[in-house]
Amino acid sequence: MTIKDMFGNHLSQVPKGNRKDIRNAVEAAHAGTSWASMTGHGRAQVLYYIAENLSARADEFASRIEQMTNVSPSDAAKEVQASIERIYSYAAWADKYDGQVHHTTQRNVTLAMPERVGVIGIVCPDVSPLLGFVSTVIPAIAMGNCVVVIPSETSPLSATDFYQILETSDVPAGCINIVTGGKDELTKEMAKHDDIDGLWYFGSAEGSKEVELLSAENLKRTWVNYGKYRNWYDRAQGEGAEFLRHATEIKNIWVPYGA
Predict the structure, then answer these.
(1) What is the 8-class DSSP label of residue 236?
(2) CATH code, 208
(3) pLDDT at 217 over 70
(4) Fewer CB within 10 Å: N-end or C-end of the chain?
(5) pLDDT of 3 over the 80 cut
(6) Shortest CA distance to 198 belongs to which of 153, 159, 240, 148?
(7) Per-residue pLDDT reduced to its tens digit, 178-215
(8) Into how many domains does the chain fold?
(9) How many whole angstroms from its chain centre is CA 224?
(10) What residues make up the domain containing 107?
(11) pLDDT confidence of residue 254
């Protein structure tokens, strides 16, 4: 698949993923047990390492964003810096997103414990290709999930370049699996796949509706935006507890006490 800049000039070629690629990526994600078994503190250390390595190559990533989106050098640098800060934020959250203790009518201590969903499919927004990728992928893995990711269809090179960061940051195999290609086609395959436990979709209203319809058959958890605008630079919209909540499931544990 040919990637061009805003003026139609050739930039690069990326693979055009298909159903088999999604299937292979899901299998790899399920095999990535070492990430799921890592402690929150251990995951936090890896995320800090990712942020440090991205910071060391900030100029290179900013240049790539300029090429793909034709933004100014200052705007490209701003996106890279926002991405670095976002990774640091989730590194801090990784071992601090705790459960709660609830009172019940019976003599029980009720523990509400957040646990990872499992394998999450993520369809990234087309805008802000690096920040959109980081803002959706990092909270999911911070909670111990493995992910299958479709990056920005129009500007996927930030995600494919980011994979070089992952390979040098102690991220284990199977944790993050990137499949480039047609967004609509690949999203359908993920929605229909029985071994994907959750699916996040940031795209059109039509695509959101199709994700929910196709996911109903296998009871997959979905989080879609129905085409609504989200400002990824705004911390209130682009990061925080909302993302961590969708990256976890709550396990309730009842512990009886007293007479």
Answers:
(1) H
(2) 3.40.605.10
(3) yes
(4) C
(5) no
(6) 148
(7) 999 999 999 999 999 999 999 999 999 999 999 999 99
(8) 1
(9) 13
(10) 14-256
(11) 87
119-172: pLDDT as tens digits: 999 999 999 999 999 999 999 999 999 999 999 998 999 999 999 999 999 999
H or E stretch at 41:
helix 40-56
- What confidence tens digit (pLDDT) does each residue in 218-236 have? 999 999 999 999 999 999 9
The answer as to whether 172 is a domain residue is yes
205 in any annotated domain: yes
Residue-by-residue DSSP string for 160-175: HHHHHHHHTTTPPTTS
In a domain, 70, yes or no: yes
Nearest to 91 by CA among 159, 145, 43: 43
Cα–Cα separations (whole angstroms), residue 116 to 39, 40, 54, 183, 251: 12, 11, 26, 25, 10
- Reference 187, options 205, 207, 213; nearest CA is 207
User: Over the range 228-257, which residues count as b (16 or more CB within 10 Å of their CB) and which as e?
Assistant: eeeebeeeeebbeeebbebbbbeeeeeeee
- 40 burial level (CB within 10 Å; 0-12, 13-18, 19+): middle
Q: Tokens in use for 23?
A: 């299937």
Mean pLDDT to the nearest integer, 46-63: 96
Q: What is the DSSP letter of 212?
A: H
Q: Are strands 221-224 and 198-201 parallel, antiparallel or unpaired?
A: parallel
